Amino acid sequence: MGLCESCCVSEKRRRRRQQQVSLQQQQLLQQRQSISQNAPAREAGGVPAFSEYSLADLKAATGKFSAEFIVSESGEKAPNLVYKGRLQNKRWIAVKKFPKMAWPDPKQFAEEAWRVGKLRHRRLANLIGYCCDGDERLLVAEFMPNDTLAKHLFHWENQTIEWAMRLRVACYIAEALEYCSSEGRPLYHDLNAYRVLFDEDGDPRLSCFGLMKNSRDGKGYSTNLAYTPPEYLRNGRVTPESVIFSFGTVLLDLLSGKHIPPSHALDMIRGKNILLLMDSHLEGNFSTEEATALVDLASHCLQYEPRERPNINNLVTTLAPLQTKSEVPSHVMLNIPKQVEAPPTPQHPLSPMGEACSRMDLTAIHQILVATHYRDDEGTNELSFQEWTQQMRDMLEARKRGDFAFRDKDFKTAIDCYTQFIDGGIMVSQTVYARRSLCHLLCDQPDAALRDAMQAQCVYSDWPTAFYMQAVALTKLDMHKDAADMLNEATRLEEKKQKSGGVY
Predict the structure, then answer these.
(1) Cβ of 22: how many Cβ atoms within 10 Å?
(2) Which of 137, 156, 235, 437 is exposed most, by the fewest CB atoms within 10 A?
(3) For 208, which DSSP code?
(4) In Å, what is the CA distance from 150 to each residue of 34, 84, 191, 193, 259?
(5) Are 387 and 10 in contact (CB under 8 A)?
């Protein structure tokens, strides 16, 4: 066979290999999409889609509704108990348990829950599911780990809420109400400081539980009559204007740091005793102009005649310009640590490579890849004598230069050299893809790193290192659930190979 014919054969094989790798990558992407589609549905912001839960799942999550899991402010004396729980997927939830037969018709309860479950907003502690089983009626919501506004205002231990944070609470809750109203859910039952919750970032959110009545025919308000809208006392009906009145009572709480009856507060406002209304624990650290605006808004919300109260849009329009310290995170203003959910524990013991990837220790990963060299590439390339052309020698020289650069931590040069080797197309090497993936990570290019790690998997579908590198890249892309899945798959493959005496 002549040199030209040999080159022609070499080029055909190169193209065939490129087509095979491209097809494998497409299949891998389709497989990944299929897995994603079959996983539990998720919506924007990582909130699960609304769904029905089994009673067994909720019992397991809450320790069989153990008293130690109760988070209701009144404990076991609360009319509707709320429990915290943790599902098998490690997600924390809040479960509201209604008394038996509060909603006799399960279909009616489910329909109402589904209507509320359609709502999704960053200012809501969103409803993510429900359960109807026999006489049991339960709602499932996102769990908010940093207590209620009532706890921070009335029962604080270290420090009271600073003024800027109180303004943020008022605005965020108004935004939540505005969203609910725009989505056709303008009625909120018994809005008060206990319905305002703080999430893991310290941001205030409105509990979704108030969007449903406590029972099919039950009362819309369970608080002291002194804080109840006057029209509700007359006809027992909750209206959009009633919600505005209740929002006014929350504004009073924010201003005073106490639970003051609206009639008493209005007397103070009419008497121009605004300073007497203000929380003394603020020690004067507030803007008089902002406080006056908040007092004025509260006064309008608490008007006796519903038609004289502002509408939902007016609340947001008034409160938005009062926001200060917008650059300061809520958890800083509340003086609480930001809670970060720990990644799920891998299902198998971690090897040194696994440990390095779990810690995101790129230096340790580099050392392991250098030490491993190309031992995992054995058998992935079968080359005929005719393919040892000058082009082949050039490719191997490019890989050799890349290896030197990789060893010496000149990662940009390594990327260039490894790219030259890969583009040659005569040989495929999962190790080169893994090394170039790490180089991309060290050059802050996680998207390119993920592509290379997936290519390494295409070349060698059961290679743990390919999954490890995907785990690291996915973590860099803030795709933590997918990263945990890749880490578990890598450790499973390592365990499998160790049992069979193979290398990894």
Answers:
(1) 12
(2) 235
(3) G
(4) 45, 18, 12, 5, 9
(5) yes
DSSP 90: S
User: Rounded CA gap, 243 and 232, in Å?
Assistant: 11
- Is 190 among the residues known to form the active site? yes
Mean pLDDT by 10 residues, the chain (504 residues): 43 50 50 40 64 93 90 64 87 89 89 94 95 93 93 86 96 97 93 94 95 74 75 87 95 94 89 86 93 95 95 95 92 79 50 82 87 74 51 82 91 92 81 93 90 89 89 87 84 77 45
For residue 165, which of 181, 185, 146, 149 has the smallest C-alpha distance?
149
Query: Cα 5 vs. chain centroid, distance in angstroms?
Result: 58
C-alpha 140/C-alpha 83 separation (Å) is 10
String of DSSP letters for 145-173 = TT-BHHHHHHS-SS-PPPHHHHHHHHHHH
Q: Phi, psi at residue 52, to the nearest 5°? A: -90, 135
Would you state the pLDDT for residue 312? Answer: 93
Bridge-partner residues for 141, per DSSP?
A: 94, 127
In the numeric block, the tokens 């507060």 are attached to 265
CA gap 146, 198 in Å, rounded = 5
Give the contacts of 484 (CB within 8 A, at least 6 positions apart): 343, 344, 346, 471
The pair of three-digit structure tokens given for residue 320, joined into one six-digit string? 């938005």
**CA atoms of 168 and 408, how far apart (whole Å):** 51
The bridge status of strand 92-97 relative to strand 81-86 is antiparallel
Residue among 190, 199, 253, 403 flagged as catalytic = 190
C-alpha–C-alpha distance, residues 404 and 401, integer Å: 5
The answer to whether 338 touches 201, Cβ cutoff 8 Å, is yes
- Compute CA 498 distance to the chain's CA centroid, rounded to the nearest angstrom: 36
Alpha carbon distance 201, 113 (integer Å): 27
Asked whether 71 and 207 are in contact (CB, 8 A), the reply is no
Give the span between the Cα atoms of 89 and 481, in whole angstroms: 10
Length of the chain: 504
Structure tokens at 11: 């080029």
Identify any residues that bridge with 198 across adjacent strands, giving them in sequence order.
Answer: 204
Neighbours of 105 (CB within 10 A): 11
Q: Closest Cα partner for 333 from 87, 489, 95, 168?
A: 168
pTM greater than the 0.70 cutoff = no
The three-state secondary structure class of 273 is: coil
Rg of the Cα atoms in the chain: 31
Residue 314 near residue 332 (C-beta atoms within 8 A): no
Please report the beta strands in 103-214, taking only residues with DSSP state E, as ranges in sequence order: 124-125, 127-133, 136-142, 196-198, 204-207
